[in-house]
Amino acid sequence: MVLKLSQMGTAKATNDERLSFAQRGPARDILRLLQQNGPMTTKQLRAALGVSSLNAVREQLTGLSAAGLIEASTLRQGAGRPTYVYALSAKALALFPQGYDVLLKLLLEELAARTNGPELEAILAGVSARLAEHYGGQEAGQALEQRLTTLVQSFAQQGIPISVVEKQDVLSLHGYSCPYYNVAQESSHVCGIEQQMLERVLGRPVRLTRRLVDGHAGCQFVVDAAHGSHGAAQANEPAEPRS
């Protein structure tokens, strides 16, 4: 049995959808101009784009605003009508290339160099606990299916597709992309953080059995669905990471 997003609820807008929208011609050009120049008026955008129609620019701005990629504010100059100034939203800024993978890799290396084994494990466990809160946390007595629904929806909102597969009494999670791929190639710590996060969210022991960075089609986590008391009895004591 495969639980797809249509069964478990879909996110309103994923990062992939916003990125696809932003990559279409004039819309992409406007986002790039706002990134390079900061807030701009409609007339300034028209001049920078080299078009003659203000309405064409306004049409693009309307679409970008509806997608949550730009924000408008008013600028008053004298006694006349206020001018609208457009700027990138936080969602739009997230579409542009980031250096998070390099920063995370160096941070993990520095932590490993400055701490001993138990200290590092304690820090990483704290990170996994915060990550679990970000992806929905857990409530005492909540059924596994409800936890899975919350998890799938949370990942979908981040543009990370996952599926839940139950086959021959084995429940597993399949991730088809890795948000930490570059880091995971050189450090298994990030895989351990992800595994512990899943244990906290699902309240069950979880084993990482396949990794995208090892040449598999995706990452696979096997959930021990039989141990229903794990989340309640050991919510703050996840199993040791297995990477």
Explain the overall architecture.
By secondary structure, the chain is an alpha+beta fold. The protein has two domains: 15-93, Winged helix-like DNA-binding domain superfamily/Winged helix DNA-binding domain (Arc Repressor Mutant, subunit A); 98-233, Muramoyl-pentapeptide Carboxypeptidase, domain 2 (2-Layer Sandwich), CATH 3.30.1380. The protein has twelve helices and eight strands. The strands form two sheets. It has a five-stranded antiparallel β-sheet. A hairpin with an 8-residue loop joins strand 7 (206-210) and strand 8 (219-223). Helix 8 (117-134) packs across helix 11.
CATH class of the largest domain: Alpha Beta
As a percent range, the share of helical residues equals 40-55%
Task: Give the strand line-up of the largest sheet.
Answer: 1-5-6-8-7
Separate helix tally: 12
Shape: elongated
Question: Would you tell me the structural class of the helices and strands?
Answer: alpha+beta
Q: What is the total domain count?
A: 2
Number of strands: 8
CATH third-level topology of the largest domain = Muramoyl-pentapeptide Carboxypeptidase, domain 2
CATH superfamily of the largest domain, please? Trafficking protein particle complex subunit 3
- In angstroms, what separates the terminal alpha carbons? 26 Å
